[in-house]
Every structure is written in C-alpha cells, then in structure tokens.
C-alpha cells in the first residue's frame, strides 16, 4: 500500500507539539516518555444505547507499521464512565498515537454521529495520511436505573450484576489526497438504527387488530389489593394496578425526570395525555422518552421486577393544539420498540367497550391511581395512591368555575373535587380513570387538566379535574394500536 509522504501546512508550536484546534475537548499531554491525546466531552443523554467516539487524525509521515495505527480508550474503567454518564459529568478518553514524531494532528471529533469539533481549514487542506480511531461503549437500558432516584423524580436505581460488552477499538486507515475522496481499507458491519417517529393522526374508520389483549386485560392478580388507608388517598399493594406506567423525560439539566403516568393497553401501546409531550415550546424529542413498566416505589433503588422500554413512535391526536386554551383531544399513544412481557406486575387495562354515552357514567365513581401530590404537599409520592372520584355533569362542572368553560369540550368530562373528595394532581397527568365492569377494569378517562391553586401554581385539590373521555377516541386508539 502506498502513502503520500508530502508534508504541507498545519499549525505546530515551537516545541513540535501541534496546536489543538479544539483545546476545550482535545489536548496533547506528556505521559513519561510518550505524548498522548486526552479527550473530554460532555456526558450524553443517559437514555442513549451506546457512545461511539470517533477520532480522525492527520499523520504527515509514513506510518512505522500498518499493524499499529494507534487507539482510543476510556481514561478510566467502564464503571467510571457509566457513573460519569449517570451524573452528567465529563467523559474522558486517552488517545495513543501510532508515532511520536511528528505527532498526528486532530481533524475531527465525533460522538454518536455528531461532530463536536473540526480542525481549521489549513489542517483540513493538508496532505498526509488520515487515521480514524473508534471506540464504542454499549449501554444496556437498565443502566439508567443505576442512578439513585431523588425526591425530584429522577429515574430510579436498580442493582444489577449484568456485564456490559465493550466493543474493541476499531482502527481505520484512510489514504487521503487533497482533492480526492478518501476510501477505507477495512469493512465494518453496523446495525441500522431504529428511526423513531412522531405522528399526528386524526380519527379513522379502519381497525388495526394489533394484539389487543382482550383475554388478559383489566384483571390484576387476585392476591394483590389495598393496603392500609393513607393520607391523600388509599395505598395499594404492588401489582394491584399493573397497567400503570411511569413516563420519564430526559432534561438537558437534571437528566431523566418523572413526567407523567400512562396506561398499558397492549404489549407495545401506552395511552396517555398529549400534553405530556407537546407544549407551546414544541414537542418532546422521542429519544428523550422512556417508559417504566411494573414500577411501584419510584424512590426505592432496590426494587426489582420492572421493565424499561424505549419509544419508537409518539402518536398525538391531530385535534390537540397546545396553544389553544381548551384541552380537547388531549390524548396520545406511545409505541414501544419491542413488546413488553406481561408479569404479575405488568398487565394491560381494557379499552372501553360500552356505549360512549356520557349519561351512562354520570354519577359513577371512577378509580384513579398515580404518584401525584399528597396532603403533605409532596409533588410526587413514593408509591401510587388510589382515589375514587365521582363523575359529574358538565353543567355542574361549569357552574363550579368559569375557567372550565375554556378547558372542557364535548370530549371531556369532570370528576372529583367534591366535599370530602381528593382530586388528582399535576403528577397524575396522563394517568387513567377506570371503571370496574364484571370484575374487569376498563379505561374511561385520561387525567388532562386542573385549575391551579393561586397560592402555589399547583392543582387545586378542592376543584374538579378535567379528563379526556377515552370512549370518544376508541376508534382512533384501535386504528393506531401496535
């Protein structure tokens, strides 16, 4: 194999050490008798499945050996890197160069396909041999749960002894000419990533028969039931409400935080509120959404038996407009990439099968379970609480406050907030109201909106709560089932 040995251009200090084009990310440092490259990059989202670091170098001399092209490796151990990711700390790498004189110059740093840094034009236009060094650290989804959950609702920790594979460093030599496209001397096979999608759909008449669990839905294991009465709602035992889903959103500051509740209706479909993902500021990036099934105590780092899933599609009803004061059609479906396996703690709830007439449910008690605000003022409770809320007429809801005129429609209903009744709250958003029919639970409402308490901007527990009427959207849900 031939190499071009012509040296041209480039920035070099008086000591012979190249001037880094990205001093905040890449630096040359002396380690005993050897010059090394040190990389430090911001921690990526904890929801990523892998971290692929690519380092492109320019060598202005013939390589001593084609078998040693250098390498890039983690500065510390894999466990150190995992902790750095979880706590949003800097991730560090060490680069070993294939030769010490002259030292290679940095052309580009890329993480997961995103260019973090590129060299100046005179380096990019230089003659020489281009080397690409690659390191990939694979992260299992369960590693998200190694982060201790704080009272702010960050994703819980889960102890695990599972080993994570680290892909060996791959080395690629590129013979480079100034005016010629580069080509590789090694072939790599990579898995095509799943392309997440966000859909906005309206009602459709067709029926998608996708795996609606008619035989197992709405029936928790009989051994699970209520625990002692707790302030701010009845406590339940784990497994009593197995379709309850915790929805987490990864934030730029603070990492994954609890966002909403959801309701499992098939092995891949969760129904929740559209407002959990869309606001006046835009729609949540689908890669920042994670679903936690079978979770009970969201503050207990030792709890096991839950399942974490990534989202492939967010299907938001086309009639939902976040910049409108009304909460009409505040409903969305989150479709997981893979089917979740049903267990004692993970089961689907039944879709509403009765008439969609509101008169059939007016005055009935619906059951809502969630981690919402309690009587002590906590925004989140450690374990879910159960409340019974009476469904009231639209007229009664409107009479209670003029505000409801702007946040209700003919596809919503009001419940709770009566004398001696506890209402659901902010953190219950997206959770379901269910009615028990013939010993099976059926989903009738989705927690949608509440009137804020003027003293703390949190929901007024003495006021009615607005629910999306699921019965009005059954055909839309069935059409989009996965």
Automatic annotation (TrEMBL):
Q: What CDD domains is this protein classified in?
A: Tryp_SPc
The residue ranges of the Peptidase S1 domain are: 230-482
Q: From the UniProt record, give one GO term of the biological process aspect.
A: proteolysis
By its UniProt entry, which Pfam families does this protein fall under? GD_N, Trypsin
Print the keywords alphabetically: Hydrolase, Protease
Q: Name one GO molecular function term.
A: serine-type endopeptidase activity
The record's section on PROSITE patterns has: TRYPSIN_DOM
Please state which protein family the record places this protein in: Belongs to the peptidase S1 family. CLIP subfamily.
Q: What is the recorded name of this protein?
A: Serine protease gd
Lineage of source species: Eukaryota, Metazoa, Ecdysozoa, Arthropoda, Hexapoda
